[in-house]
Design brief:
Number of domains of chain A: 3
CATH architecture of the largest domain in chain A: 2-Layer Sandwich
Distance between the termini of chain B: 25 Å
Strand content of chain B: 15-25%
Oligomer: heterodimer
Structural class of chain A: alpha+beta
Largest sheet of chain A: 5 strands, antiparallel
CATH superfamily of the largest domain in chain B: Response regulator
Strand order of the largest sheet of chain A: 2-1-5-4-3
Radius of gyration of chain A: 47 Å
Helix content of chain A: 40-55%
Low-confidence stretches of chain B: none
Largest interface: A-B, 39 and 37 residues
Largest sheet of chain B: 5 strands, parallel
Shape of chain B: elongated
CATH class of the largest domain in chain A: Alpha Beta
Helix content of chain B: 25-40%
Chain lengths: 460, 225
Amino acid sequence: MSLPNRAERWRSSSSRLIGLYALFFVAWGAVFTGVLYWEISRYLGTVAERTLMQRAHYYQKVDDANLAAELAASEAYSIPGIDAYGLFEANGRHIAGDLLKLRSSLPDDGRVHYLERGLSIAVPREEQTRSSHALLLHRNDGRILILARDGGSISAVGGIIEQALFWGLSLTLIPGLIGWQLLRRRPLKRVQRLQNCTERIVSGNLGERLPLSNRRDELDMLADAVNVMLEHIEQLMLEVKGVCDGIAHDLRTPLTRLRARLHQLQHLQLQGTDAQAVSLAMEESEAIMLRFQGLLRISELEDTRRRSGFECFDVHTLLHQAHEFFEPMANERGQTMTLQVPADLPPLSGDMPLLFEALVNLLDNAIKFTPPGGAIQISAAGQGSEVLIKVCDNGRGIPATERDSVTRRLYRGDASRQEPGHGLGLSLVAAIVRMHGYSLAIDVPATGTGTCVSIRCPAP
Amino acid sequence: MSAVLVIEDDEVTAHAIMTELQGHGLQTEWAASGREGLARAIAGGHDAITLDRMLPDFDGLTIVSTLRGLGLHTPVLMVSALSDVDERVRGLRSGGDDYLTKPFSMVELVARLEVLLRRPAAGSHDHCLTFGDLQLNLIEHTLARGGEHISLLPTEFKLLTYLMRNAGQLVTRTMLFQEVWGYHFDPGTNIIDVHIGRLRKKIEGRGSPAIHTVRGAGYVLAEPS
């Protein structure tokens, strides 16, 4: 039996914590660099704006006649590709300067504007569509002067910040991931040990306790609490078992006495109705005995200590014996009982007498609830490392609503109340299957009528 | 007349056992405690002992292993309120010859005790069993009736062997199930009857031994009437 939610790597709490930290760090880094970028670009914008305004101011004072010469002279000290100008006729024709085209999108208000798609600057080997700050001036003679300053430094700052962000994040996240891998491993190993332990407890070993480390951390606190709880549960179970065993033992002697006394009465040469009454009472006491022994047997099976006595056995031998035991009875009732067992089944580990007892109960039911002329099939099949043992019949079947209940102690379907038996057959089978760690399923065979009981036995 | 020592602390059960045994022509002696029982058993003079597994002073297992340790091989039928299969194994390992779980039927107790009383001494393994005109060859696994060969299935052969070894004596269904199939639980069906029925059809004939059904008890292989 396995517990739900086996530990997955990413589900551990340290993974979550580290993930959350990483997310927080990335978000914080992004906000920080964003603000930095915004502040720097604003500052650079202001600087560009001021420079442009200064130049504009200067050229405003220059005469129209000297303008071209003055502009040409300025190229001597301005950096090519960074500062540029363009002088145009009123109709937009280019007169001088690196700016070749008059941009119509540049507002004509004498103020500096930032243009995302740059102005066409006639600089060879330079990208011509860079962003820039630009300003449009109307000269008195109708010519148009455009002054521009490249905005590339702002995007360069953006690039630097992006790179810084990339390196910063990767240098933080990579060691973080390595750290996570190392950090999660230890607690996960401990959790896996705890899980293995609980699996043993679930499978019936109530004496087992969760392992504690000497760290006294959260896991230990939890394990300690569970251990205290287990202690309590074990004690309660032992008390219940003690009471049951006590009752069983107390009932055995009076039942033995009752039967002895009835037996003595039978020897008294009673007449007519008296003899009949005594033999009826004897039959009733037999019925009590059968049911009592069945109940004791189930309690005994639920005590899983017997697992230590498991041995390897051959499925073929077991099924063959069961078939041989019941075949004459089926034959007598006009039923056919067939056996289908492949020769190459893996051996199983278990208590063969108990499994035989389970098969006896299943086959007894199959014979009881299948009409004369019916067919009963015992089969086994290997499925990977498992063996699937099946007992199928084409009898009246078990209604879908009752299939789960029939394995409960003492449950009897309405239809089966007329049949003899102590009503413990399937409960006993279920108990035997459970103590072996096998699983039991009851369904309808492929033919549509009858019952098919299958026992799935994982190989040891 | 065989003598049986009954070691049992419950008076009612002890009396019932003794009455039943006396009814079958056996002499009985009662010991109500383990100490007394052990002393009487060691004193000897019994052909069989029924021993309660749980006595107030001694454990039944101790008594049986003490007896065996002293070299006393009186057959012991252990009667126990502990039905666990492991308990049976422990009972038999410590030297008990058979094991019966409470609550038991008197028929079962007497049948098992009589088998113990008539058990042949160790070492006397016959190759051939004969009863009436039936001859069973235990080595070749064959059956002959008055020289005529009858073929038997392996199960039928085992059934007949047990019946013939205990011919004239009552054997119960659980005894047969235990001996022939080797299992110790109550199969709870009339399946043994069906197997006996098959065997009966094969072996019975005019002048041959017959398997009689004793109602509510078991079977007896008896001489032809």
